[in-house]
Amino acid sequence: MNYKIILASNSPRRRELLAGLDIPFEVKVIKGIDESYPESLDAYEVAEYISSKKAEAYRSLLDEEPSGKASEEQGEDAAQTLILTADTVVIAPTADEQNDQEGKGVILGKPKDEEDAVRMLRMLSGKTHHVVTGVCLTTRSQQRHFSVITEVTFKQLSDAEIRYYISHYKPFDKAGAYGIQEWIGYIGCTGLKGSYFNVMGLPVQRIYEEIARM
Asked: Is 87 a catalytic residue?
């Protein structure tokens, strides 16, 4: 893969997952990017919308492409810069749904504090929800963006289990207030349909295929 890949994310989980593909990359982070989205946007389109929005903020990095004499000597083999941006959202069922397949789901972001995390995990307890990661791959000449959806089912979680998890693992940097790879996933996840790594924050198999196509 003849790309100089830049992972535009400060997430240690995304770094770990991308490293698992054995593809060289570097991490660059621009702070203060606006991650808002229109309220009218369908819940399942939000992650892809935000990842594309992040890509626009990183476009200046494409100016670091090889140029001049060195580029001419390398010809078509000169490495292009490819920027990888991603965003993950958890879509929980509404109060009257067992799952969110009707598309009425509620987007859960990162919890503000402990009680907000408790609220989110109670919404997921005993129900099926979806994790959507939107990815945008951007070079000077082209851009690919897509979403990957994974269905996750939790058992009925007790308040003691919820509070234990939050107290010991402090999932305040995670959408939906949980990490599937942590204790709550070990004891609470009863079903998963789709990519496990997508729930962690990066659908690496799909990313590998898309970069290969580019």
From this structure: yes
